[in-house]
Amino acid sequence: MQKSDFRFQLPEELIAQAPLPVRSASRLLVCQRHSFATEDRQFSQIADYIQPGDLIVFNNTRVIPARLYGKKDSGGKVEILLERMIDDKRFIGMMRCSKTPRSGQKILIGDHQVLNYEGREGDFFLFSRDKGKLHELFVEYGHMPLPPYIQRKADSMDDERYQTIFAQNPGAVAAPTASLHFDQTILDKLKEKGVNSTEITLHVGAGTYQPVRVEDLDQHVMHAESFVLSAQTVNQIQQTKAAGGRVFAAGTTSLRALEAASADGELKPMSGDTRLFITPGYQFNTVDGLITNFHLSESTLLMLVSAFAGIQEIRHIYQHAIDNKYRFFSYGDAMIILPEAA
User: Fold this and answer.
1) Which of 101, 215, 257, 269 is in Cβ range 3.0-4.6 Å of 202 for a Cys bridge?
2) How many helices (H) and strands (E) would you count in the chain?
3) pTM of the model
4) 165: nearest Cα among 65, 62, 250, 17
5) Interval 199-225: pLDDT, tens
6) How far is CA 311 from CA 7, 35, 173, 175, 208, in A?
7) In angstroms, rounded to a whole number, what is the distance separating the alpha carbons of residues 284 and 287?
8) Is 276 in a helix, a strand, or coil?
9) Right CATH number for 3-63+158-338 from 3.40.1780.10, 3.40.50.720, 3.40.50.880, 3.40.1010.20?
10) What pLDDT score was predicted for residue 135?
């Protein structure tokens, strides 16, 4: 398949720049796998589309303050976005500056914290720290890493709203955005209806924003993300399916972790990295339904959603969302892709 198969035109005014005052006040576009039918609803009505005995799998990763602002020892400004930590002293990340530093050059963070620029690491850059733990540096000097399409700096509001209400395990540099819509009222409604929930952890990396640079998707190298799927969650999924229930992934991150752990056809407890690249033609092993936001043109996430629901169907659904002025991307509206009718 070609990258251009997943291209669409989005009016800039539909890119959400801030969250709505209430998490669940977003809109919900209801559709079904391999169907062109759509319904326009509110996210507060999502419980109407999930049945008693179904299971929702949430990603409990927590976004860390992963964006650093500093300057080279020569004076030029530098902006660094963590991709992932290698150990307590080294990490790889994205970097924005007027001129790439030379290998070994010092970067000053704050008044006296020093990073060493070590050179390129594939599409990213390698940094190290001689003294102190990296985690402490990001906690003290880091800023919430809003996506590049949000044209403002993060503020105190984002410290709360760019986290899910069940975020627990620090490590992500981007939020599992489909879950940003859930508040306690909705979770209570789902529980009262007999809908169950469980959690996995997948630490979303900055690579999720990396553009696909090749036209032939067979040549694309997918970024790695670490995840943990527990035996308890595997048991809940197996029990749900045995009882005739359906498994919904809350977000593409949950879906990716579940499918990575069932790549050989059988779901197993697992931890480690995944480079699973899901494109149309992929056979899904675990997930029946998907709750997700709207994704960027030509992105790997749009390719994943197209694999799940159908390429032509997603083109039609996205055009419906644009025509009806849904809000796109991280702080935007949501869609639920229901399982095919029995």
Assistant:
1) 257
2) 7, 17
3) 0.93
4) 62
5) 999 999 888 888 899 999 999 989 889
6) 11, 11, 29, 25, 20
7) 7
8) coil
9) 3.40.1780.10
10) 86
Q: Please tell me the distance from the alpha carbon of residue 64 to that of residue 144, in angstroms, as a whole number.
A: 7
Q: Which residues contact 37 (CB under 8 A, 6 or more apart)?
A: 31
68 membership: H or E segment, kind and range: strand 67-72
Output the CA–CA distances (angstroms, integers) from residue 48 to 52, 177, 191, 193, 216, in the order listed: 10, 21, 12, 9, 40
Mean pLDDT in the chain?
95
Cα distances (Å, whole numbers) of residue 271 to 4, 228, 334:
34, 4, 29
List, for residues 135-170, the tens digit of each pLDDT value.
889 989 999 999 989 999 899 999 999 999 999 999
Position 181 pLDDT exceeds 70: yes
Amino acid at 267: L
Q: Comparing C-alpha atoms, which of 221, 182, 191 is closest to residue 300?
A: 221
Task: Report yes or no: 335 and 28 within 8 Å, Cβ to Cβ.
Answer: yes
Residue 240, both tokens: 């749900």
Per-residue pLDDT, 342: 62
Give Cβ neighbours of residue 273 (< 8 Å, ≥ 6 apart): 224, 225, 226, 227
Beta strand 61-63 with 169-172 is parallel
Q: Which listed CATH number (2.40.128, 3.40.1620, 2.40.10, 1.10.150) goes with 67-142?
A: 2.40.10
The pLDDT, as a whole number, for residue 73 is 87
**Distance from chain centroid for Cα 16:** 16
User: Structural domain boundaries of the chain?
Assistant: 3-63+158-338, 67-142
pLDDT digits (tens, 9 = 90+) for 3-33: 999 999 999 999 999 999 999 999 999 999 9
pLDDT of 175 > 90? The answer is yes
Kind of pairing between the strands at 77-85 and 270-274 = unpaired
Lowest mean pLDDT among 46-55, 60-69, 119-128, 173-182: 119-128
Which has more confidence, 224 or 260? 260
